[in-house]
C-alpha cells in the first residue's frame, strides 16, 4: 500500500503477469482507477494504461506460475458484482433471428453470451418465433425477476420490446394508453440493444457505434441513459410509441416499398430509397405544433447531445420539480399552437439525432436524447435536384437545414392532417368532390394520384395519416451512456482493452 505526497491518496500496488511481461499495477482508490505500466518500457515515453474500476467486468485469480488454482478453472470473486451496485445480475434476452442479415442468434451466442457469463450475469433467452412474440411475452413474464431486458435485432425489434415494457408498465399502473393526454408511468427497467438489424439507428444514436461487443459492455457495467418517447394517437386511439423517426412522405414511402423487399436484407432501403427519390411525390397537409419553450437547446446548435449532456440534465431537473409539484396528475397545457399548411416532400419528427451508419450525424444532429422534445423537420416541395442536395447532406457534415425549402422547429407536441383526409371529412356527403379529391389539382389533365403517404414510425408503418404526437420526457431508460465526446470507432472499441486485461 502506498501513500502519495500530501498524504491523501491511497494506492494499492502490485505486479501483474500479462503474456511474457510483468506489469506494475496500481489501484488508485480516490480516483477509482486501475492503472498498469511496463516498469522497463521497450521505448521511452510508452503510455501508462488505465481503466476506471467501475468498468472492470470481472476479476479472476491465477497462480503466479500460471497454473490455475484447484479445479484448473478460472476462479470467480466471491462478490462478482462488488465494483458497482447498478450492474444487472439477471437479464431477459429476446433475439430476432430474422432481423438485418439474419445474424442475431450467432451474434448473441458468439459475442455477447461469453461476456455475460464472464461478468456472472445470468440470462433467460427467448428466440422469437413470430413478430410481436417479445411484446406479448413481456405482458406475461414475472418482470420483477429481471434487472433489465435485452433485445438482439434492429430498430423494429427494439420498438417491440419498448412497447411491451411501456405497455406493461401502464397496465400495471392502471393508465389508459388511449388517452393522449394521460401522463404516462416511467419505465425504470433498462433495455439493452445488441445491434443486429438493418439500420440500428437507436443503438448508433445512443452509443455512437453499431457494435455488439460495445453494447454488451454497456449492459454489463450497468450504464443508464434516459430516453424521450413520443406517443402517437389517432382520434383518441393509441397507435404507437416512437423514439427515433416519425417520417411522412419520403421516409414513409421508402419504408412502405421496402417492406415488400425484406428478402433483400439491409439493401432494401437503398433500393427503395432510390425508387422513392425518382418518384418525387409530395403531399399536402396541415401541421400544428407546440414549440418547446422549457429546453435550453435549439435544432441549429453546433453542439450535439453527448454523455452527461447538460441540456438533458436540465430537463431531468425540471421533470423532477414538476413531479414534486403535481405528482403524476395531468396538468392542462395552454401553450400556443403554431399552424403550417403546405406541400411537403418529407415531414420528419425525430426524438433523437437518428444517426446511423448510413447517416453518421443523423437527420437532426443537435437533437437530444432526453430533453423532452422532438425536432420537426419540414422539407417543402422543391426540385428533384434540390431534394437530392438535401439527402446528400444526411451523409456529410454540411448543415442540412441551410436550404430555403427546409424548416426545423423544436417541439413538445405535434399534429398532422393530410389535405386528402381534410377534404374527405369536410365533404363526406359530397361524393363527387370526394372522388375528385383523389386527383392532383395542379395537373387535372394528368390526373396524377395524390393518395396519402404512410407514416414511418421507428421503421413500422402506421395505419392512419392523421396523427397526434406528444413527447414524454425520459419515459424510459437504456443500458447506454450517450455518445462520448470525440467518440470515434477507435474510442468505442477501446472497451476491448478491458477484455484484454482479463
Ligand atoms: N421470429 C420473427 N419472425 C418474423 N418477424 C419477427 C420475428 N421476431 C421479430 N420480428 C419482427 O421483425 C421486425 C424487424 O426486425 P428488426 O428490427 O430486428 O430488423 P430490421 O427491420 O432488419 O432492422 P431495422 O429495424 O434496424 O431496420 C420487427 O418489427 C419484429 O417485430
Ligand atoms: C441519394 C442519397 C441518399 C442518401 C440517403 C441517406 C439515408 C439516410 C437514412 C437515415 C435514416 C435514419 C432514420 C432511421 C429510421 C429508422 O427508425 C428506420 C427503422 O430502422 N429506418 C428507416 C430506413 O426507415
Ligand atoms: Ca429529444
UniProtKB/TrEMBL annotation:
<dbReference type="InterPro" id="IPR016064">
    <property type="entry name" value="NAD/diacylglycerol_kinase_sf"/>
</dbReference>
<dbReference type="Pfam" id="PF19280">
    <property type="entry name" value="CERK_C"/>
</dbReference>
<dbReference type="InterPro" id="IPR057465">
    <property type="entry name" value="CERK_PH"/>
</dbReference>
<dbReference type="InterPro" id="IPR045363">
    <property type="entry name" value="CERK_C"/>
</dbReference>
<dbReference type="Pfam" id="PF00781">
    <property type="entry name" value="DAGK_cat"/>
</dbReference>
<dbReference type="GO" id="GO:0016020">
    <property type="term" value="C:membrane"/>
</dbReference>
<dbReference type="InterPro" id="IPR017438">
    <property type="entry name" value="ATP-NAD_kinase_N"/>
</dbReference>
<dbReference type="InterPro" id="IPR001206">
    <property type="entry name" value="Diacylglycerol_kinase_cat_dom"/>
</dbReference>
<feature type="domain" description="DAGKc">
    <location>
        <begin position="86"/>
        <end position="236"/>
    </location>
</feature>
<dbReference type="GO" id="GO:0001729">
    <property type="term" value="F:ceramide kinase activity"/>
</dbReference>
<dbReference type="GO" id="GO:0006672">
    <property type="term" value="P:ceramide metabolic process"/>
</dbReference>
<dbReference type="InterPro" id="IPR050187">
    <property type="entry name" value="Lipid_Phosphate_FormReg"/>
</dbReference>
<dbReference type="Pfam" id="PF25382">
    <property type="entry name" value="PH_CERK"/>
</dbReference>
<protein>
    <submittedName>
        <fullName>Ceramide kinase</fullName>
    </submittedName>
</protein>
